[in-house]
Amino acid sequence: MRLVGKQTWVYKNQIYLNSTGTAVGPKEGQGPLGASFDIKYDDLHCGEDSWELAERRLMVESVDSCLQKVNLTNDDIDFFLAGDLLNQNVTTNYTARHHQIPLICMFGACSTSMETLAVGSALVDAGFANRILASTSSHNATAERQFRYPTEYGGQKPDSATFTATGGGTALVSKEKGPIRITSATIGRVMDLGITNPFDMGSAMAPAAADTIIRHFKDLNINQDEYDLIVTGDLSGVGSPILKEMVKEEGYDLGNKYNDCGLMLYHSDQEVFAGGSGCACSAIVTYGHIVKELISGNLNKVFIVATGALLSPTMIQQKETIPTIAHGVVLERVQGGE
Amino acid sequence: MEYLYAFLVGGAICIVGQLLLDFAKLTPAHVMSIFVVLGSILDGFDLYDNLIRFAGAGATVPITSFGHSLLHGAMQSAEDHGFIGIAMGIFELTSAGISSAILFSFLVALIFRAKG
Fold first, then answer.
1. Distance (Å) from the alpha carbon of B53 to chain A's nearest alpha carbon
2. For FRET with A34, which of A28, A46, A309, B100 sits at 20 to 30 Å CA-CA?
3. Eight-class DSSP state of A286
4. Rounded CA gap, B45 and A301, in Å?
5. What is the count of residue pairs from A and B with beta carbons less than 8 Å apart?
6. How far is CA B79 from CA A142, B66, B87, B96, in A?
7. Average pLDDT, stretch B5-30?
8. Which of A42-56, A269-283, B92-106 has the weakest average pLDDT?
9. Scanning every residue of chain A, which has its alpha carbon at the shortest distance from the alpha carbon of B109?
């Protein structure tokens, strides 16, 4: 049985993360993790005419860079599991049109990175695929337009707002031996504690992340000591303390093993309000920085919990609250390296 | 003294807007609409013209003066043309502001790229 406890998958076969690719925008490239990204753009347009085309380019290039590192082509990949933040998942659909890999399109808002990685690993584990790509992207200007106001509108933002990261991140998963193993994943429940403010998604998402982390510990009968690092996707400076408090109430003290991708991605003087957010936030931090730390041996076992606010502007206008979700995946360093 | 009054009155209007944004949690569009309506209501009681005489640009620059101009245009034209004049007046007095907004944003869009 691969289902352990209530909602955790433990992969039976040895599933490996063989390669990753990242492409990022200007602020991400200038941030503290800038050196760990493959492709960096100095301009938010990324050489394209519109923001949507810029985001598409980031996803396409993250895929190309991921494949290039292991000398594979599109034809070597069985399925492309991907999603983004835009209506109809347009970035994903057009990227899949370009690469011609059979597509499984998914939406989990900013939890998409780990959702695609967890499901992709399950497909490989069960033999439905030999190699899959898990990919996601977000772009600051496309997300602002879709979920808040177009930047040109000039609406003010409170300090609790987050800053959507610009980038694309892709991972290659297969049973072929690689430097990092994907061992288990916990699929989250949708949580909603009644937050309606789209400028405070950190508070809205903290309960979902807490629930997934606690579930993960209980399902596997472990605690935080099992990991070198537990990261959430984009809880920001507002949601992170709430998460730590909620997990602590259940008897798990994350202490300084915990971090948030949205806080790791930017310098404190980069004017990103409470921190980074968006699909790309957890994707580029994981596939850029954390993967390198695992390969170099600075980290051995990490639990990545990507958090998603399932926010729809239409539903917010109808006074509905914001449902949120979090999916977690465990990455382990293969002892002895490559 | 005129400058001080302009500064104080204009600033006071902006404080009201900021309080509406921060504490009443209204959207920028809501605040804008409220100010336009507020300006026309004040003008209905003949208060806004007095405010402009007192504070000059402090009262004409904020969006409240747009509501005041709307009402002025409507009333003026209603006197000349009767009921239908209300609609005519609104367009007449405010068309300059709206068309210039469209024209200038078009020109700026031709020259510059969005920064994001």
1. 31
2. A309
3. I
4. 71
5. 23
6. 49, 20, 12, 21
7. 92
8. B92-106
9. A152
- Cα separation, A110 vs A21, in Å, equals 18
Instruction: Report strand pairing: A163-164 vs A3-4.
Output: unpaired
Task: Measure A97 CA to nearest chain B CA, in Å.
Answer: 27
What residues form DSSP beta bridges with A191? A324
Cα dihedral across residues A47, A49, A52, A53: positive or negative: negative
Reported as type and span, the H/E element at residue A330 is strand A324-333
In Å, the largest CA–CA distance within chain A is 55
Query: Which H helix or E strand runs over A260?
Result: strand A258-260
Q: How confident is the model at residue A336 (pLDDT cuts 50, 70, 90)?
A: low
Q: What is the rounded CA–CA span in Å between residue A239 and residue A281?
A: 15
Q: What is d(CA A32, CA A265) in angstroms, rounded to the nearest whole number? A: 6
CB contact at 8 A, A62 and A171: no
Query: Complex ipTM above 0.95?
Result: no
Are the C-beta atoms of residues A73 and A67 closer than 8 Å to each other? yes
| Closest residue to A155, CB basis, from B22, B28, B114 | B28
Asked whether the beta carbons of residue A156 and residue B21 sit closer than 8 angstroms, the reply is yes
Q: Is the pLDDT of residue B111 over 50?
A: yes
Report d(CA B23, CA A158) in Å as an integer. 11
Percent pLDDT > 90 in chain A is: 90
Please state the pTM of the whole predicted model: 0.90
Instruction: List the single residue in A with minimal CA-CA distance to B22.
Output: A158
Burial B73-89 (b: 16+ CB within 10 A, else e): bbebbbeeeeeebbebb
